[in-house]
# Entry
Amino acid sequence: MNKRQQQSEIRHQRILQAASHRFARFGYQSASMDDIARDAGVSKGLIYCFYKNKQALYEATLRRELSQWLEESAHIAPHKDDPMADLQSLICAPFDILRNKSVLQTLLTGDTETLTRYQPLFRRLRRRWRNRIMAILRDGIAHNVFDREMDTVHTAGIIYTLQRSYTNSIFKL
# Structure
């Protein structure tokens, strides 16, 4: 990447950061492109070089936070031969990760129109999360940590539902 491309990428990241801050603090309707440009230290015209409109910028900030959430949750460190610790890490991780994703919190707390568009992604995330819980439970059964008679599908569903309910109550989702 040459110097011009690097500078462009830096400005682009500043725009996304400023937009994330504005959308989280003031909501989609009240966040203005003028304020985002001022916060990012760029012209409003430059924002429109990157994004067609405010909705496109909002969705880019949301995709960025979702992508970061996926990346961070994918790297939850497994504990060697300790399925109970793995399960605990997996249960606690969403709270720590979501705490730093202000646009995602805002979306989940009331932007039902945008949330509806992302339902297929959220379904995939939920399926992936339950599968990770099931894998940990199966590993625990294999290591005699959990009861061999455990129904891993049903138990993973219960754990996921409890985790989701608790997340909803904390972030008022």
